[in-house]
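lol forgot to send this yesterday, sorry. struct tokens for the thing we talked abt
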């Protein structure tokens, strides 16, 4: 069965968040299970594409209203990636050093049209077109209702929602950017008076899934305005928990680590990575090290960090290290905190894959008090790297972490507040003193299986249910 994924991000080419990790891994695991999966993504001006060996497989033009853009489809010749990867090269719109900007409407509309034009010319058409998030949310509508894609009408489509906060809104005055369609169907594009790409995909895709079962349940209640739509479409919606790419996230082979380790050698391995972190960031290796890795945004609970960290750091019993960027006010308060607690706290504002890997390996605990977490990959990486996750009771976190008080292996807070964060850190710091338990638990969590094997099988079952 041939499945084409269309996505704005794909690891290792361009990654902003978890979407890239999924699109960079799922196709590989689908292929291993006999599905012929490929990815189509934009050709950005990023390190990967600058060095890529590509061949031109298709050339044409895309019309957006009165604008005309030449485009090429480039096939990546890197076999190591594990699936066929195609780039949509529209130099004027897509070849930028960033993935997203303030106004992406034209960029992603053009990308989606070009991707479909290419699919349309293929003799062996896909059995399923799988799109991801709002950036590719117009694909199901265009396949069904745009006259130029008439021959794609009967191909089933799947939408995976990685994050429902962002929906790809634009005004009806920009309707003419889309290829010609029967105006009787304009309602399928609309939600609350504007064009809403995610809503259009929820309405038009044959199946919709989120990246964890709990997130799907939560979206029925709170989905940035789309709750009633999702409830209405409930029968075609499911939740499939993401896996992690165990070949990329492997403590025995991860080349970013200071020292590699396995379940049996975790003590010396984790210690070497912790030592490196503590030396680099002036922290005390003998104290339990708590880390945060991620975007500093409201959904991640990061607005609570300045006050919570201040309280946590006061008694000097633990160390905190933070990696991330986002809200400028939060960044400033977190930087300011360093002047008051230089001996127990440090931070790196920015994106750094290499540092993040060393933090997953060298930390004792990973903090993740998210308000919204569709799946959450960090807690899965931390489990695999033997670092105990401290999470809130939402979305994929709820589906993957069990509190130590319920015979589990992590820490779960029931409310997202400064007090809850401070208390859970204190609770974890006490448990840290029990080195026998700590060691047993680390071995246990490193062996938990959250690989893609299982998730890929669930996607194949979903695709098979669409065969017509
Ligand atoms: P998001 O909501 O950001 O998509 P996910 O948990 O789904 O969150 O995925 C986050 C991914 O991005 C993880 O692989 C995490 O390690 C990585 N990540 C986030 N912020 C940073 C950063 N500042 N530096 C390095 N990696 C980061």
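and heres what i got for the seq, position by position
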């Amino acid at each position: 069965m041939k499945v084409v994924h269309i996505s704005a991000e794909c690891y290792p080419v361009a990654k902003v968040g978890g979407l890239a990790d999924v699109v960079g891994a799922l196709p590989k695991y689908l292929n291993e299970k006999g599905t012929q999966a490929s990815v189509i993504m934009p050709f950005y001006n990023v390190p990967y594409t600058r060095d890529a060996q590509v061949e031109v497989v298709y050339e044409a033009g895309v019309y957006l209203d009165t604008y005309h853009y030449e485009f090429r489809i480039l096939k990546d010749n890197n076999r190591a990636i594990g699936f066929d990867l195609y780039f949509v090269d529209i130099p004027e719109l897509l070849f930028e050093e960033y993935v997203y900007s303030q106004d992406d409407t034209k960029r992603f509309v053009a990308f989606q049209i070009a991707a479909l034009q290419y699919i349309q010319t293929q003799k062996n058409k896909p059995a399923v077109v799988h799109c991801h998030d709002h950036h590719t949310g117009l694909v199901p509508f265009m396949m069904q209702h745009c006259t130029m894609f008439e021959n794609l009408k009967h191909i089933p489509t799947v939408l995976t929602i990685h994050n429902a906060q962002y929906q790809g809104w634009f005004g009806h005055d920009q309707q003419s950017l889309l290829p010609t369609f029967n105006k009787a169907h304009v309602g399928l594009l609309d939600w609350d008076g504007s064009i809403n790409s995610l809503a259009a995909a929820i309405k038009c895709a044959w199946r919709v899934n989120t990246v964890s079962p709990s997130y799907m349940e939560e979206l029925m209640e709170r989905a940035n305005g789309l709750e009633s739509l999702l409830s209405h479409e409930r029968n075609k919606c499911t939740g499939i928990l993401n896996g992690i790419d165990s070949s990329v996230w492997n403590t025995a082979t991860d080349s970013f680590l200071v020292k590699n380790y396995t379940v049996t050698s975790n003590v010396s391995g984790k210690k070497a990575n912790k030592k490196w972190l503590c030396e680099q960031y002036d922290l005390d290796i003998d104290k339990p090290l708590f880390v945060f890795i991620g975007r500093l945004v409201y959904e991640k609970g990061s607005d609570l960090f300045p006050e919570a960290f201040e309280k946590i750091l006061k008694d000097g019993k633990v160390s905190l290290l933070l990696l991330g960027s986002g809200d400028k006010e939060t960044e400033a308060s977190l930087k300011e905190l360093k002047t008051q607690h230089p001996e127990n706290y440090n931070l790196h504002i920015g994106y750094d894959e290499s540092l993040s890997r060393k933090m997953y390996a060298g930390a004792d605990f990973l903090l993740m008090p998210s308000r919204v977490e569709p799946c959450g990959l960090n807690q899965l990486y931390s489990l695999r790297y033997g670092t105990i996750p401290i999470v809130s009771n939402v979305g994929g976190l709820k589906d993957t972490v069990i509190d130590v008080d319920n015979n589990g292996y992590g820490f779960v807070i029931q409310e997202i507040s400064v007090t809850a964060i401070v208390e859970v850190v204190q609770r974890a710091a006490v448990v840290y003193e029990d080195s026998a338990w700590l060691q047993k638990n680390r071995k246990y969590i490193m062996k938990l299986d959250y690989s893609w094997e299982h998730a890929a099988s669930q996607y194949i079952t979903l695709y098979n249910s669409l065969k017509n």
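The chain has a mean pLDDT of 97. anyway ping me if u want another try
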